[in-house]
Amino acid sequence: MTQSHPRISKAVIPAAGLGTRFLPATKATPKEMLPVVDKPAIQYVVEEAAAAGLDDVLMVTGRNKRPLEDHFDRNYELESALGRKGDAARLAKVQESSDLATMHYVRQGDPKGLGHAVLCAAPHVGDEPFAVLLGDDLIDPRDPLLRRMIEVQERHGGSVVALMEVAPEQIHLYGCAAVEATTDSDVVRVSGLVEKPDAADAPSHYAVIGRYVLDPAVFGILRKTEPGRGGEIQLTDALQQLAADETVGGPVHGVVFKGRRYDTGDRGDYLRAIVRLACEREDLGPDFRTWLRRYVTEEMQQP
Ligand code: UTP
How many whole angstroms separate alpha carbon 303 and alpha carbon 293? Predict the structure, then answer.
């Protein structure tokens, strides 16, 4: 059934986690600022929001928030130095990140979990559906996901999560969804969610990844959600309540994503993201691929 909903225009980007998996790099720098080739991971995420038509971005920051704010602000000193040199290409690169969207910031005092970070966005978001993009989750720009999720939300109302099929031995790293098929092959109805289950208890192979389109009813639930796994207020627990009772905030659907996605907070995935994106870059790719091919061949000859 097609319903009428307010157009989604706001994106919330939680970027206040401690990033302990990436210490010591993240001791004084947010993990979202680590470069993927030559852009900080967070810039890809803001570019993705802007490409999906979300021009109002609220970033939830924590300690060490300065580099994040500075990156999306103007840098007049650098701009005038490049301008004086006539270096238009680099000047454009400096200005790119400050022209993407209207940026807002809110501080999450204590990193009490992703659910708590999302709750910090409530006064800014108000009573309209909104998108959440995790600042350390990179979706390859060639595999658009968010636009499809917004389409599904506009069609069904309620909330939409992004799902990816993972191997059973990986499911304990993610939130996992119990699902029912719909008439769209890439869309499922979510009937339940559990955070980081053991493989034996997992209701499916569908892992929740870092993109959400949420009904504002989630805020009321988060206000009452007690800390769950790891002592953190879990977004998955609030989504489970939405899925269990659709009279609260409408149904929960899942869009099954088959594209390329990297968890840049995980060192292995971070390296894979850099290699893949560097290989495909027009400027760096040809030389880098030649080197990589030679390197891999040499490695394979090692005993
Ligand atoms: P992670 O689960 O990756 O946790 O958070 P983390 O603390 O950032 O990293 P590790 O596990 O210690 O290495 C997923 C997303 O939720 C945000 C993070 O910034 C990341 O984008 N987050 C998490 C918050 O904004 N606040 C929190 O309290 C927790």
Answer: 18
Supply φ then ψ for residue 302, to 5 degrees: -70, 145
Indicate the DSSP class of residue 128.
Answer: S
- Please write the tens of the pLDDT for every residue from 141-158: 888 899 999 999 999 999
> Does ligand 1 lie within 6 Å of residue 145's CB atom?
no
Helix (H/G/I), strand (E/B), else coil: 62: strand
CA 90 – CA 83 distance, rounded (Å) = 9
User: pLDDT digit string (tens) for 85-104?
Assistant: 999 999 999 999 999 999 99
Q: Is the CB of 117 under 6 A from ligand 1?
A: yes
Q: Among 12, 18, 57, 195, say which to mutate for ligand 1: greatest number of ligand atoms within 8 Å of CB.
A: 18
Distance of CA 19 to CAs 97, 267, 301, Å? 23, 11, 36
pLDDT, tens digit, 9 for 90 and up, residues 26-66: 999 999 999 999 999 999 999 999 999 999 999 999 887 89
**Domains (ranges, CATH) in the chain?**
10-265 (3.90.550.10), 266-303 (no CATH)
